[in-house]
Amino acid sequence: ACSRASKWRLALHVLASQTSRSLPPDVISCSAAITACERGQQWARALDVFASMPACDIVPNAVSYNATISACGRGNQWAIALALLDQLHRAAGAEPDVVSYNAAVNACGRSHHWQATLELLAKMRDMAVLADAVSFGAAADSCVRASQWTHALNLLQVLKSALLQ
């Protein structure tokens, strides 16, 4: 509930109370707190929660990674978002999906790194992760913001072709 209402302070308080009581936090409560921080534009706090998970013997899952990548994207921390995506590739028991890549594409796009958005689309193809309209739209938007009209039009053409198949 805290994550839906962007009540990041309350979410962090609930998480801290779980730790201080004999009710240990789990991957779900940590992911919810990260999401609340992301929605409250508190990328550093989201990253702190994510980084604290292993110390509590909590293994981050794809949801935890995706929420943290999104939080970093909202904070224009594209390099950290890409590092988290790379870490997710190496994580045991979790692997990046279209949501992971879309969060990273958005992070790069918001920070005006249009080349990185194109590289991520190529990596999705290489990793057999099916790009969707969000993937192409975010990358095209990034290209438009950088006045890379040819790239943006090419992406839209690829999306149109994919939708017709």
Following the backbone from N to C, one meets helices and strands in this order, namely: HHHHHHHHH
**Beta fraction of the residues?**
under 5%
Query: How would the global form be characterised?
Result: elongated
By DSSP (H or I, 4+ residues per run), the number of helices equals 9
- Give the integer mean of the pLDDT values: 89
What's the N-to-C terminus distance? 39 Å
Radius of gyration: 17 Å
> In terms of per-residue confidence, which ranges show pLDDT below 50 for 5 or more consecutive residues?
none
* Major sheet summary line: none
Task: Describe this structure as you would to a colleague.
- Helices cover 71% and strands 0% of the residues.
- The protein is mainly α.
- The radius of gyration is 17 Å and the shape is elongated.
Structure in a nutshell:
This protein is mainly α and 165 residues long. It has nine helices and no strands.
Helix and strand layout, with pairings?
Elements: H1 8-20, H2 27-39, H3 43-52, H4 62-74, H5 78-90, H6 98-110, H7 114-126, H8 133-145, H9 149-164
Helix pairs in contact: 1-2, 2-3, 2-4, 3-4, 4-5, 4-6, 5-6, 6-7, 6-8, 7-8, 8-9
